[in-house]
Specification:
Blueprint: H1 7-13, H2 22-47, H3 52-57, H4 64-86, H5 95-110, H6 116-121, H7 124-137, H8 142-156, H9 159-167, H10 170-182, H11 190-201, H12 213-231, H13 243-253, H14 257-265, H15 275-285, H16 295-311, H17 315-322, H18 325-335, H19 354-364, E1 381-383, H20 389-401, H21 419-428, E2 433-437, H22 439-442, H23 445-456, E3 461-465, H24 474-477, E4 484-486, H25 492-500, H26 516-523, H27 541-545, H28 554-563, H29 568-574, H30 579-592, H31 596-614, H32 620-645
Parallel strand pairs: 1-2, 2-3, 3-4
Helix pairs in contact: 1-4, 2-5, 4-5, 4-7, 5-8, 7-8, 7-10, 8-11, 10-11, 11-12, 12-13, 13-16, 16-19, 18-19, 19-23, 30-32
Pfam families: TIR_2
Domain TIR: 376-500
Region (Disordered): 524-545
Length: 650
């Protein structure tokens, strides 16, 4: 590149009119750019053969003259596009050629993630946002559009690159580009690249935006086809990219249940009977690796563990995943691994480590083996997303100021190098799990792992809402047992005081923790009040989940009321004779409360009925618990019916 860094050439690229014979410099620049681009491409292909150690140690140095050259390239491209838009005729007949060569060189440079920080330093995110705005507003040749999108995609793969692009409001500009992207035909993969860029840039807390039909119907099919195309090649590449590039994007999409279900139930991959069969085959191609294996193979392995982690949350497919004994053995081995190679975090902005993903899979499939604990006292455990750490710290301090000891991962409790092992112990030994519910929590795979484990351990959960108006995602909502505190606009200390009413003291069971006035009224009931028997140990949650509710006996209903910690008077009020009766009521109940006015009326009617028949107050948290229980009943039963009606899927 030194040959391009002469003062005269930099002046030419910067558009200065001080040099004669501009055509000579344009030809000179074009020739050298072609050479440098080929060398860069060669280095990129060479890097794909690096081991983990070689990749991590590989560095490129740019001195000031090279940085100045890259800035001059950006300025040259910017001037060219501006002239194109304003229809200014250039006297340099070779500018078109130089423009194409320059764009191709920057595209090749951005394809190597080691170079991305250099492009950030030379302000390419600023120019890219400007160029994309040009494309939205003007009729720009398709090859320029495609090159621009590819460079944005390449930079967005780097964590710092994604942040730099978002600092320039690239995500907002991308949204305005969607209709333009849809206007191109299939000869140019601009629409799939657009959605790949969008997926890499959108924060996970906004990833509900990825649930569009266009994504499941177009981009996911495109990604799956490219992954299959790369898989069938000997070097795991398509003609344009390594398989890891497509898998990294897919791993972010598949965090959404809508996308995961689409892949598992509706997508078609080549000749495979279903997508899960294809991913199983791909998994074993990169399962057993050593530190000397290719860096990109390790990256593929990480993404596949993350993808299977997302698959394992889907109840209708857990049995099929679990039935593959070879896969389960591989996951169990990975869950105990201590020698995973170091992968640069800038490639892993939304990926969990192999060990964490493996543990998540085992938890979801009810195969996780609890770690022995020496704890002698149960205390509340706080589960939260680290984006809410300031709220968590304030809550922890308030509880401790009131002599309530709590377990939180940053409070000196994690003494092991295995963070999840400590968190798992804390959940297992918790008197109650306090979940700080927020949008960030609902879109965190680690948080979902914690909430799922707490649910499977049948732990009582208290939902603590940071925002008054936020409603939890469905996967979390069905696990919340009804007791909740909304902080929001309330005085913080007042909300904490209310929370203290629901936190067990010492080793007290939360099932007995009812406001004193209600507890007194319950014990003084007339003999006619029927309450569910204490038989949680006799009837497991798992057995109820695997049995259609229509087939439940009265004993099963008894166990379900206990499991959900519903107000005992509800059991007596309803007196369901069998599961079919309970299911019909749950269906009607859920339909009835879809409307806010009906929901309020239902609550008022229940309050009146329970007060008149049993003399007990029906509180808002009792109602919330009933609502989430009825929703969970319908959701769980739909999964059981799917497995029963589609035996081939298991």
């Amino acid at each position: 590149m030194d040959c391009l860094c002469t003062e005269e050439n930099l002046s030419y690229l910067s558009g200065k009119d001080v040099i004669n014979f501009r055509w000579i410099f344009s030809i000179y620049t074009d020739i050298y750019l072609i050479i440098v681009k080929k060398v860069t491409r060669f280095r990129i292909f060479e890097a794909e053969s690096y081991s983990v150690a070689a990749w991590n140690s590989h560095k490129f140095t740019f001195d000031d003259k090279h940085l100045l050259l890259l800035k001059s390239f950006a300025l040259f491209l910017d001037n060219y596009l501006s002239d194109m838009i304003t229809q200014v005729n250039t006297t340099d007949l070779n500018s078109d050629t130089v423009f194409g060569s320059t764009f191709n060189f920057i595209m090749a440079l951005s394809d190597f993630t080691h170079f991305v920080p250099v492009l950030l330093e030379t302000e390419y995110p600023k120019y890219l946002e400007k160029w994309l705005s040009f494309i939205v507003k003007h009729n720009i040749p398709v090859d320029i559009v495609e090159s621009t999108m590819i460079i944005i995609n390449n930079i967005a793969r780097h964590e710092q690159g994604a942040q730099a692009l978002n600092d320039r409001h690239m995500l907002e500009t991308l949204k305005t580009f969607e209709n333009t992207a849809k206007s191109y035909n299939n000869d140019h993969p601009i629409l799939p690249i657009y959605y790949m860029c969008y997926a890499l840039l959108v924060p996970l807390k906004q990833s509900k935006e990825l649930k569009q039909d266009m994504i499941t119907g177009t981009i996911i099919d495109y990604l799956l086809n490219k992954i299959w195309e790369a898989h069938k090649s000997s070097n795991m590449r398509t003609n344009t990219a390594n398989i890891s590039e497509y898998l990294v994007v897919l791993a972010k999409f598949v965090v959404n249940d809508t996308v995961a279900i689409y892949i598992l139930e509706k997508s078609k991959v080549a000749q495979y009977p279903n997508a899960l069969t294809f991913f199983n085959e791909l998994f074993f191609r990169c399962h057993k690796l050593t530190p000397d294996d290719l860096y990109l193979k390790h990256l593929v392995r990480i993404t596949l563990f993350n993808i299977f982690s997302s698959f394992s949350f889907q109840k209708a497919h857990q049995k099929e995943i679990k039935s593959n004994e070879e896969f389960i053995h591989a996951v169990e081995e990975a869950s105990h691994s201590t020698d995973d190679p170091l992968i640069h975090t800038y490639l892993l902005q939304h990926l969990s480590a192999v060990k964490d993903s493996a543990q998540c899979i085992l938890i979801n499939l009810d195969l996780y083996k609890d770690v022995a604990s020496t704890a002698t006292k149960q205390i509340p455990m706080i589960s939260y997303c680290h984006k809410d750490k300031e709220f968590c710290r304030r809550l922890t301090k308030s509880l401790k100021d009131k002599s309530i000891d709590v377990w939180v991962d940053e409070d000196g409790h994690c003494l092991s190098v295995d963070l999840w092992e400590e968190i798992g112990k804390a959940i297992k030994n918790a008197s109650v799990v306090l979940i700080i519910v927020s949008e960030a929590y609902c879109h965190s795979k680690s948080c979902r792992k914690e909430a799922t484990y707490a649910d499977k351990r049948q732990k009582q959960i208290i939902a603590i809402y940071v925002d008054d108006d936020y409603e939890a995602e469905e996967w979390l909502d069905i696990r919340l047992t009804g007791t909740y505190i909304r902080f929001g606009k309330k005085l913080f200390d007042d909300a904490v005081s209310r929370l203290l009413n629901y936190i067990p003291k010492s080793n007290e069971s939360l099932i007995a923790l009812v406001p004193q006035i209600i507890q007194h009224e319950v014990t003084s009931q007339s003999p006619n009040v029927q309450q569910p028997s204490e038989q949680k140990e006799q009837q497991s949650t798992t057995s109820l989940m695997n049995k259609p509710v229509q087939n439940w006996t009265k004993q099963d209903i008894d166990a379900w009321f206990n499991e959900r910690h519903l107000l005992p008077q509800l059991y007596s009020l309803y007196s369901f004779e069998d599961g079919a009766e309970l299911y019909e009521y749950a269906t009607a109940f859920n339909d009835n409360i879809l409307d806010a006015e009906n929901k309020k009326l239902k609550y008022e009617n229940l309050c009146a009925s329970i007060k008149s028949q049993f003399g007990v107050r029906f509180e808002d948290y009792h109602y919330a618990k009933l609502v989430t229980s009825m929703r969970k009943l319908i959701t769980d039963n739909s999964q059981v019916n799917f497995l029963r009606d589609n035996p081939s899927s298991v």
